[in-house]
Amino acid sequence: MSLINCNNLTVKIADTQVCEDLTLSIGAGENWAILGMNGCGKTTLLHTLAGLLPAQSGDINLNTINLNDLSRRDIAQQLGLLLQHQEDHFPGTVLEAALIGRHPHLKSWQWETESDEQLVIDTLNLVGLEHFSQRSILTLSGGERQRVALATLLVQQTKIRLLDEPVNHLDIHHQHEVMKILTTNNDNIANVFVLHDVNLAARYCDHVLLIYGNGKVQQGACANVLSEKNLTGLYQHPLQEITHNNQRWFIAN
Q1: Is the torsion defined by CA of 142, 183, 162, 156 positive or negative?
Q2: With contact defined as beta carbons under 8 Å apart, do 135 and 94 qualify?
Q3: What span, in angstroms and rounded, lies between the C-alpha atoms of 194 and 90?
Q4: Rounded CA gap, 196 and 203, in Å?
């Protein structure tokens, strides 16, 4: 079942043609990677899919309903966005920050319930922040803050998750832990990852969208689209594929 689809989508930012007449269908249980060089428009496309930026032309549908026909509350109940950078302008606890993920499901002036708080605590435990609920958000390292942002997204409980560099600031261990959390037991969820690490895409994603920054894109199953030829052309640098324990890896020459 398609959770999000684009028809004849054209997106441009400044002089960069992100995509032109893109048709894209992302289904439940699928994990998509968006790959491309710096400045090609990966974040712009993700923000367009979330309805934060307008497309030049074309349609975006969430569960068959046009994005423009939905309120921000309706969108937030179906689609969650993890931003590339987290900015905290006011002090607060980790628990309070993560509870923001529950706001799309609350009525006007409604306070979070005990079940909301318990969901956040359980999710903080899941991302390895068991004892952080009362810590000030301003005292966290970059990696800890990124995991709080992930917990906030998870407690939003949406079927569509758009993630802009979700492993930003994370060490190797936590990179893989985060990707496992997001891609395990997600038969009813669609993940769309903007990634810089081709090997994370090859390991955890089943579909990929390559963005060249001139309107050209390639999309399809990772097994078919991730190749030495395509990635060398995408990054304008020679890459070599190696296989170890039935896992494909790409290394720069």
Answers
A1: negative
A2: yes
A3: 28
A4: 13
Give the span between the Cα atoms of 112 and 201, in whole angstroms.
36
> Domain coordinates of the chain in residue numbers?
2-252
Multiple choice CATH, 2-252, 2.40.280.10, 3.40.50.300, 3.40.228.10, 3.40.50.1100 = 3.40.50.300
**Paired strand residues for 162:** 81, 192
Sheet of 65-66: strand order equals: 16-27, 2-13, 57-62, 65-66
Residues with Cβ within 8 Å of 131's Cβ and at least 6 positions away in sequence, in order, are none
What the block records as the tokens of 63 is: 């569960």
Instruction: Please write the tens of the pLDDT for every residue from 151-208.
Output: 999 999 999 999 999 999 999 999 999 999 999 988 999 999 999 999 999 999 999 9
Nearest residue to 60 (alpha-carbon basis) of 75, 81, 38, 77: 75
Is the confidence at residue 91, as pLDDT, over 90?
A: no
Q: Cα–Cα distance between 150 and 50 in angstroms, integer?
A: 17
At 119 the three-state DSSP class reads helix
Secondary element (H or E) of residue 198 = helix 198-204
Whole-number Å distance between alpha carbons of 164 and 117: 26
Global confidence as pTM: 0.95
